[in-house]
Structures are given as structure tokens and as C-alpha cells.
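Field: COMPLEX_INPUT
Field: COMPONENT_COUNT = two
Field: RESIDUE_TOTAL = 486
Field: MODE = joint
Values follow.
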Amino acid sequence: MENLYTAMSANKRNSFFITVALTAVFVVLGYFLGQYWGSGYGGVFIAFLVALVMSLSAYYGGDKMVLGISRAKRIEKKDFPQLFNVIEELAIAGGLPMPAIYVIDDTAPNAFATGRDPKHASVAITTGLIQKLNRDELQGVMAHELSHVGNRDILYATMVGILVGSIAMMSDFFLRSFFWGGGRRRRSNNSEGGGGGAIFLVVAIALAVIAPIFTKLLQLAVSRQREYLADASAAKLTRYPEGLASALQKISGDKEVLEVANRATQHLYIVNPIKPFEKRAGNLFSTHPPIQDRIARLRAIR
Amino acid sequence: MIGWVVLIILAVLVFAAIGIFNNLVVLRKRCDSGWAQIDVQLKRRYDLIPNLVETVKGYLKHEREVLENVTKARQQAIDVSGVKEQAKAENMLTSTLRSLFAVAESYPDLKANQNMLALQEELASTENKISFSRQHYNEVVLEYNTRIEQVPANIFATIFNFKARDFFEIEDPVEKKAPKVSFT
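Field: COMPLEX_OUTPUT
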């Protein structure tokens, strides 16, 4: 059975594991690319550096990137006094430091938390959600987010999001290099051009193969257990499960799509921001447990 | 050879002992800061009340008694000492505040006053912070009290005089359920 403490260490362990796995993959790819350019070990060295920079920036700057992608703006108490108060109350209840609060200017109701540890945590909420919820419901949603902060889900979820995003980007880059580079070479020099294109194709294919594996990891990052656990911890914080339950009810009734959410950040949100009728959601819809089930579980808490 | 083994075992034991001791210190510190947090929030409520009275005074000319009760309850809460008396005075203050807000309901002008709305939110939030800080205090005390009774930490607890802490208990059965205070 997953509880707060096993979740906490599992998150730290998984974050470390995904970094090591990424570095290993990069080093292997770097070796082949390096071979092509004349020095396998030079390639390994560069790939290692790239992996290191990526991991470090995901660890230290991942939260800023995610918030930037989501176009979230930092707020002060005077901007949204009630929201600020609600979060302050919950930080006291959970014995956590006060997180930075961000607001996303979008009418779709949603919220997420990010950061590497409770001391460097941020919570973001859409203006749509602030408007739709009453105080108790807002408290429930924020308690859910602070539970993610408390058990370090935010570290793993942020790392995975950033790394998945960069791999998708690199896959695109190599695929384009293959098409453009290959084409140019074929025009100028037929005998050598094929090899240059091929190596890019291999890298692109390798990355294209890795990307779904990382997406799978991303799904695991929000295993149903983890979301249920955050819901339960939220109920424990507020001692009022109905607040979150009725907030989820309200959110589930809303059909709006959050424009700023994408493949790399969708798993961070309290409910999947990419609604099932959207084509881009596809089978990734399973990143979140069914909302009605979550509500039923919350209402069963007594 | 045997000397080395003994030395290593001793070193491991010493490190384990340091770890256990430090853990106890951390847990005790958390109890202290949890208790301090309650005081911070209570103090905050005292500070908000004069503001509230000032705002409300002009509107509630015929409800002087309600206002006086709040002021009196506040003074009492500041003056008393002893955990039990303190809890009682705080409860008194909470209920006088509630009746003040109930009375304010029948004054539309007052209800629409921006200052009043802001104060209501601040006081509602402070009430929540008080009960949440008590809740958190009880959680850390539970963890600390459990730890000092567990083997092997209980040995250190006895030697270094780590005493069990009292839980924050509220006699009033209504308060016990940690009611959601919502003045709006």
C-alpha cells in the first residue's frame, strides 16, 4: 500500500532513475553520432555533457520552464487575497513553507503544482477555476496540490515533463536534419550523402522509439494511486473531503480545453486538461484516474 | 583484526546513536514551532479586532453591546494565562465574533463596505489558521510522543530527558469538530 513516506522516497528514487536512464541513452546515441563524425569518445563526451545540462536544468529550472510554458504569472497577496489566504492556511496545516503562487489567465478550470522540493514549490491555478469555486472547494483543490508538494510528486512530475518535452524536440530536430541535410547532400555528392542522412535517420528513429517509453514513464508519474493518495491527503489536511469532491464535480462538468497545456505538462494538472474529445489526447487520456471514481472515494471518507 | 572489527562496530553504533538523537531533537523542535505557530495566529486575531471594531462602529450605533462583548473578550483572551483558561477565552472570543458578524448581516451598507469584506476574509482566514495550526501541532506531537516510546529511541529519550508533550484538546464538543468558519 502506498503511503506518504513510501511515495516520497519512490519519487526521489524515480527522479534519479529517469536521469540515469536518460544519460545512458544519450551516451549510446552520442557514441554512434561520434563514430560518424570521426570520434566515438568525443561523441560520448558531448552527449554526456548534453544529458548533464538537461538534467541539471530540469532539476533546478524545470519549475520555471513549466510555469513559463503555461504562461503563469506570479501573484501577490493583494491580487487574490482569498486564494492567498487559503494557501497560507493549508501550508500551516501541512507544516509546509509557503509556496509561490501563480495564476494562468484562462477560463478552463484547472490547477497544478511544480518545483523540486517543498522549499522551492509553486502552485498555479487558472482564473477560470478561481471564479467557479467557492472557498471550501478552492481549499480542497489547493490541499490536493499541496499534497503533491508534500510527497515530492512535483519533483518527479516536473523532471519527466521537461525530459519528455526535450526528447520530443530533439526527435523532431534530427528528423528534419535527415530530410534537409539528406536532400542537400544528394544533390551535391551522391556517394557520401546517403551515409550522412542515414545516421541522422538512425538517431531520429532511436529518439522516436525512446519518446513513447518516456511517455509511459510520464503516465506512471501520475499513477492512479498517486492521484488518489493526493486526494486522500487533501482530505486529511482540510478534514473536509466534500470541498474537493464538489470542486472535482464542478471541474468535470466543464468542457473547456486549457490551451496552454501540452503533452509534456498535461500530467501535472489536477484533472486532465486535454479533454477526451480532443484528438491530441488520444490514449493518453489515461494519465488521470476517472474523475467520478475520485469523487466517489472522497465521499466515502468519513 | 578483532580490534578493527570492534572499532568498526563501535563507529557504526556511535553514528546510529547520533542519528537517533538528532531525529529526536528535530521532532521536539517541530513541536515547539508548532506551538509557536498557534500563538502567532492568535496574536494576529487580536491585532485584527481593533480594526474591525473601528470599521463597524459607525454602522452599529444601536448594537453597542455586541461590540463591547468583542472588545472585552479580546482583552480577556490577552490577559489570561494557563492553557485551559486560554482555550476558554479564545472560544469566548470566537463566539462573540460570530454574533457580531451575524448582526452585521442585517446592515446592507456595512455588508457592502469593501473594508468590511476584506476584514471578514482576513478574520475567517485567521480562524482557519488557528484551527489548522492546532491540528498540525497535534500531528507533530503525536509523531514525537510515539517516537520517544519506540525502541531504541526510548533509551535516549530517558537519558536525555525528552518528555512527552500534551495534545491541544478542546473541551467544547462543537469546537472539537473543527468547524469551518465562514462568515460570508
